[in-house]
Amino acid sequence: MPDDDTQDGLRVGGWVPPYSPDDSAPGPRVRPGGRPPLPRGTQRRALGPGPAGTPQSRGRLVLAAAVALACATTAVVAFGLGDDDAPAPVAARTEFPKPVLPNFPLEPGETISLLPNPNGSSTTKQAVPTTPAATTAPRSPSRKPNPAKPPASKPAKPAPPRLVTGATIGLEAADRPGSRVRHRNYLGRLDPVTAGSSDLDRADSRFTVRAGRANANCYSLESVNFPGYYLRHRNFEIRLDRSDRSELFDLDATFCTVVIRQNTALALRSVNYPDRHVVADRDRLVLRESTGERATGFVPRSPL
After folding, report:
1. Residue ranges of the alpha helices (H) in the chain?
2. What is the spatial distance between Cα 41 and Cα 167, in angstroms, rounded to a whole number?
3. CA torsion sign, 266 to 271 to 277 to 283?
4. Where do runs of H (alpha helix) occur along 7-163?
5. Which of 182, 196, 212, 208 shows the shortest CA–CA distance to 285?
6. How far apart are the C-alpha atoms of 267 and 290, rounded to whole Å?
7. Is 90 helix (H, G, I), strand (E, B) or coil?
8. pLDDT digits over 221-272, tens only?
9. What 3-state DSSP class applies to 210?
10. Tens digits of residue pLDDT in 152-167
């Protein structure tokens, strides 16, 4: 397209000379805002969009396509060789393993790391200190607790002594071991009687327990070697008399037992004189006013 020097304004690639208002100045006259005309041989056509572009632009496109093809060929060759040590192409996609969450609830002092493990293992717990370590004194070696000892069982208390109806017994004095109740010359006494004593002494110390003649809840003592004879009180003395089946005899021959000395002995209380108990007056047995604890205590023993 021919250039039009008569048009006002600038031309692409043109040169603007200094403005000269003097029309007489040598050289081409420049109008304000215009440019001098260029020689025909030095003018350049302005580039514009074309359907196929210039040969220079086509060369650049061919060069860019060749570079892209070379990069793709390099990536394919590296992948085919399978070299683990070769660096991955820039365009390769890095695959990160999916984090595996632990089971809840968590143990104290542990945190969860949601970042992928660099080794590719499936470890899900990472122990990290939750608080700064505190300086503590060294602990002494722990001692194993002694096994609990079973509570010591208290010795069973002996059953309180009692008289058994129909049994043959001997009555030993609780405060005078070896001394037993016996009759001699029909008088009640407290004499030493042992296995080495005479047959008469041992026979005189044997009694059969009978139900109380005046009260079935109490007891009567019948002599073994003198059947039908019972210990009774008369004039407040203990004697061995034959039963006459009188009411007075039955009352005098009936005694109730009282447990004394912390359940270790028995006291004999008269059924018709409740405030009197059998008491040893030296070697003789008498009936006196006394409390159970102050009376003579007797312990039932096997007969000798």
Report:
1. 55-81, 199-204, 247-252
2. 166
3. negative
4. 55-81
5. 182
6. 10
7. coil
8. 999 999 999 999 999 999 999 999 999 999 999 999 999 999 999 999 999 9
9. strand
10. 677 777 789 999 999 9
What SS3 state is found at 80? helix
Question: Could you give the count of Cα atoms lying within 13 Å of 19 in the half-sphere of its Cβ?
Answer: 5
Q: Cβ atoms within 10 A of the Cβ of 190, count? A: 23
Two tokens, residue 262: 């912390």
Amino acid found at 285: L
Residue pair 219/229 in contact (Cβ under 8 Å)? The answer is: no
